[in-house]
Amino acid sequence: TEALLRAFARVKARHPGTQLILKTNERDRKVQARGVVQIDQVLSQPQVRALYALANAYVSPHRGEAWGLTLSDAMARGVPVIASAYSGNLDFMRDENAFLVPCREVEAVDAELGDAMVGRWAEIDEDALVLAMQLVYEDQQAASKKATVAKRDAGAFDENRYFVPATSRAPAPLNGMSLGLTICEDGWVAQIPYELDPTGDL
Questions:
Q1: Residue 52: count of CB within 10 angstroms of its CB
Q2: Interatomic CA distance for residues 45 and 68, integer angstroms
Q3: Whole-Å CA distances, 5 to 28, 29, 32, 87, 169
Q4: Contact 136/99 with Cβ under 8 angstroms?
Q5: CA–CA separation, 156 vs 127, rounded Å?
Q6: Residue 111: what pLDDT?
């Protein structure tokens, strides 16, 4: 979150008309920053779909993902995705269908355990993240091209497959894999630029 906020502040300085939407949980800290709109309430499925529809890009500078369901969901909806080039999302994301941001692997520590090392995770290259966010804003044709490829690649994920019992889901191919997953819609959504009031359109 902090890396995303810092990166967005730099994008905002270059492009004052941009805004960032953060979809968080009620327990997450409140964010007050110029150009940032935070939504922490639980949203209905139609509201989530509206939020994706408003977004010019979905940004996930994550430290690690088992799969990254919100990433594949955004791809299936034709939303350009900017994400860490690290962990489970690389099973279905590549340079042709997403803006992958380089990372370095570092020790993960838990402050509640006295900064004990609990594993390893990613630390995103913030300069590269800024460049990716600016590129989506400045070259919408390039963003649209990747989103088109992403939507094709993520064709296994469509609304008719959501919340269907696993026993009744037929596998669908994605990048040579056979998948049959229920999509969980939650996470961080960033829009660059953003011209509408999100709370008024949800």
A1: 19
A2: 18
A3: 14, 13, 10, 22, 38
A4: yes
A5: 33
A6: 64
- Parts of the chain with a pLDDT under 70: 110-118, 156-202
For residues 70 and 60, what is the distance between their CA atoms, to the nearest angstrom?
9
User: What's the Rg (C-alpha) of the chain?
Assistant: 17
Token pair, residue 62, equals 């994550």
Place of tokens 């489970």: 88
- Cα separation, 135 vs 141, in Å, equals 10
Predicted pLDDT of residue 93:
96
pTM of the model: 0.75
Count the alpha carbons within 13 Å of 107 in the hemisphere toward its beta carbon: 7
Q: Which residue has the tokens 């962990």?
A: 87
For 8, residues 6+ apart whose C-beta sits below 8 A from its C-beta are 18, 20, 33, 35, 36, 133, 190
Here the tokens at position 82 are 């900017």
User: What three-state secondary structure class fits 116?
Assistant: strand
Residue 95 CA to residue 140 CA, distance in Å, equals 16
**Cβ-contact 158, 21 below 8 angstroms:** no
Q: Are strands 103-110 and 116-124 parallel, antiparallel or unpaired?
A: antiparallel
